[in-house]
């Protein structure tokens, strides 16, 4: 045993080559790390006053939205880089509310403070009703909400457009209520258009007829203009039986001879928009008027419009307002398209609507281009 131990102790671990170390492998070349992606631009947070006012307007609270911005500006709230935007939103709200003197006073203050020209008063965007030109020599009027005395401004604009239009189309589907003042003004406008021999076409006349008929009581001598408008709508809807019944009730109520049923003249065929050189192109998608309670089906055509296009502009020049439900459906569609690699732009937005869409995250999936203030 001792000899074995001696043998172990006699082993020379220092003999060169007794334990040959493997040759050293050359060090692997260092692979440089990929350059860091530039950080995404960070949008400054929207001032609370502007965000609150945009949400109020979308919810139909124009007066509250105006007061919120007025308070922020008068009290010197920190609006940061969004100061001009906030003033622009206040200008738009004053137009919607028809407050021309306040608008003009604000314009003078704006010019002194920012040393630039203020926005100009534009009656085309007054209130919930919208009048605009369309292709084929037609004027288009969209009436929304309440048919009351507030319709006056859009009817004035309609008369101007009708001077160079052969046909005037009035869409009534978005009306929710009516009173005798609104009916009076609308009947005056219709009489003027007929004297000028303009063709008048109603979209969804039975919708407004249903609203009016529910408010009228035979035998009550009130709301005569609403009765006359009801008869006009029945005629436009080709409902002669309903017309005759309403005419008898009108005659009994007011003790006068009612209007007579008149066969409407043949309507000129509306030129298809796609065939007009100045009309919308087949791959356009337009947001216009008051988008209240829109459903997903109304935004489905975006898929067809984007077929074969990597970049796409959505025209919002005539978009007056969009509510939360409609915006949610639109955002769902745009998010899906953005995730599939499409580059989207919403152009021509009002300052107020652009601010509202930004609060909902639209800027993450589309470029928002507001009109210049």
From TrEMBL:
<feature type="domain" description="STAS">
    <location>
        <begin position="285"/>
        <end position="373"/>
    </location>
</feature>
<feature type="region of interest" description="Disordered">
    <location>
        <begin position="1"/>
        <end position="46"/>
    </location>
</feature>
<dbReference type="InterPro" id="IPR002645">
    <property type="entry name" value="STAS_dom"/>
</dbReference>
<protein>
    <submittedName>
        <fullName>Putative sulfate transporter/antisigma-factor antagonist STAS</fullName>
    </submittedName>
</protein>
<feature type="compositionally biased region" description="Pro residues">
    <location>
        <begin position="24"/>
        <end position="46"/>
    </location>
</feature>
<dbReference type="InterPro" id="IPR036513">
    <property type="entry name" value="STAS_dom_sf"/>
</dbReference>
């Amino acid at each position: 045993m001792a000899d074995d131990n001696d043998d172990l102790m006699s082993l020379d671990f220092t003999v060169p080559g007794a334990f040959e170390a493997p040759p050293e492998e050359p060090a692997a070349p260092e692979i440089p790390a990929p350059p860091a992606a530039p950080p995404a631009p960070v949008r400054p947070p929207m001032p609370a006053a502007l965000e609150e006012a945009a949400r109020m307007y979308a919810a139909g609270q124009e007066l509250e939205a105006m007061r919120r911005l007025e308070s922020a500006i008068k009290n010197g709230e920190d609006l940061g880089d969004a100061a001009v935007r906030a003033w622009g939103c206040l200008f738009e709200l004053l137009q919607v509310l028809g407050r021309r003197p306040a608008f003009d006073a604000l314009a003078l203050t704006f010019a002194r403070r920012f040393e630039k020209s203020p926005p100009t008063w534009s009656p085309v965007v007054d209130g919930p009703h919208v009048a605009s030109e369309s292709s084929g020599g037609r004027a288009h009027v969209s009436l929304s909400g309440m048919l009351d005395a507030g319709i006056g401004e859009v009817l004035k604009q309609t008369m101007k457009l009708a001077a160079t239009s052969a046909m005037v189309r009035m869409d009534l589907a978005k009306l929710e209520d009516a009173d005798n003042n609104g009916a009076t003004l609308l009947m005056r406008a219709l009489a003027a258009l007929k004297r000028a021999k303009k063709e008048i076409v109603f979209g969804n006349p039975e919708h407004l007829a249903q609203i009016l008929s529910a408010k009228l009581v035979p035998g009550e001598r009130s709301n005569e203009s609403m009765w006359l408008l009801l008869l006009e709508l029945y005629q436009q809807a080709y409902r002669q039986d309903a017309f005759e019944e309403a005419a008898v009730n009108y005659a009994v109520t007011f003790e006068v001879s009612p209007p007579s049923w008149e066969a409407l003249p043949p309507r000129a065929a509306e030129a298809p928009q796609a065939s007009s050189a100045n009309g919308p192109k087949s791959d356009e998608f337009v947001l216009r008027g008051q988008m209240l309670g829109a459903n997903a089906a109304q935004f489905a055509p975006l898929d067809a419009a984007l077929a074969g296009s990597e970049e796409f502009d959505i025209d919002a020049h005539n978009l007056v307002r969009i509510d939360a439900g409609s915006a949610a459906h639109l955002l769902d569609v745009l998010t899906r398209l953005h995730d599939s690699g499409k580059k989207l732009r919403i152009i021509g937005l009002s300052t107020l609507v652009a601010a509202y869409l930004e609060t909902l995250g639209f800027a993450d999936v589309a470029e928002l281009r507001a009109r210049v203030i």
